[in-house]
């Protein structure tokens, strides 16, 4: 048994006010699971008899969770970044054959080993900031064989962090289905989802419901196929326009609806009633120079849980810093420090359906810890380009 002592804890326990702060706290783990969290003075004798790790007054938070990434892909899209600087829009680039389609071509040409190797530096950048759980989406293969390849590559990253793999076959229309989106959705629903489910390679199913993605009707077909396969759903919703995707996702009990810049009041209420988490992606908002902020006040008033993620992807958010994503959430979306830290811990766990295992410091949960050289938790949101991580504990080690 290990016990971390002489620490200040931000437990993010929902039963405690604010960030659930415990001064002069201790965290003890027996193997992978936490067995005690609380004041060191109240720790049972058998816990105190464990191997002691002196944190020397540092802060401990739950291990951070990046709940929306496209970490596994080949190539980059730096050229498109140049085009946008010259005035081209994301939609114009996509319709001209760039965007997701260009990443699909590079990814299809890469082997599974090459994809995993390319993703590792991106994962290591997150790990270095105290991230212990990462969601990784497919969606750059767009054929059954290539989507399975992407998901296997994502699973191979599980030696460095807990990986939540999400199947995103309905990400874009592959070139061989040009002009036939319904035909492609047939393949996604009838071939890809059953194959992914049978192989046990995905923990959830996602889709891109947007004018340059798929319609609500096509998205609902994906949800129905996911439901039939026993997989929960998520959705890229209301990023560029309002197609009522978030409300559709909520009707299917979605774990999360993500982006949400164009979310309306009806969508907020639908998410609130369904318990669907709002995943905010300020990196994409910043990178695309968007001007329409998600309805933070409405989400807050309706008590919709808000998570923050990097959306790490080659085209619209080449971001591998969850700390910077928090700063962007505060500066661009006016989130509070508490909302930012809850957004990369407790609410990020909810967005992945993993709230019973991770996201807070509570007995029974997996011992994922981030130990910080900071004076107060606000520093994790306030600083830019500075990493105060002292140590990361993943599954008790």
Q: Explain this structure to me?
A:
The protein is an alpha/beta fold and 397 residues long. 37% of the residues lie in helices and 20% in strands. It has 16 helices and 15 strands. Strands 1, 2, 3, 4, 5, 14 and 15 form a seven-stranded mixed beta sheet that branches. Strands 6-7-8-9 form a four-stranded parallel beta sheet. Helix 7 (181-199) packs parallel to helix 8. The longest helix has 19 residues, at 181-199. The chain is globular, with a radius of gyration of 21 Å.
Total of helices: 16
What structural class should be given to the helix and strand makeup?
alpha/beta
Identify the quaternary structure here.
Answer: single chain
Radius of gyration from the alpha-carbon trace, in angstroms: 21 Å
Instruction: List segments where confidence is low: pLDDT < 50 over at least 5 consecutive residues.
Output: none
Q: Assign a percent range to the helix content.
A: 25-40%
Number of beta strands: 15
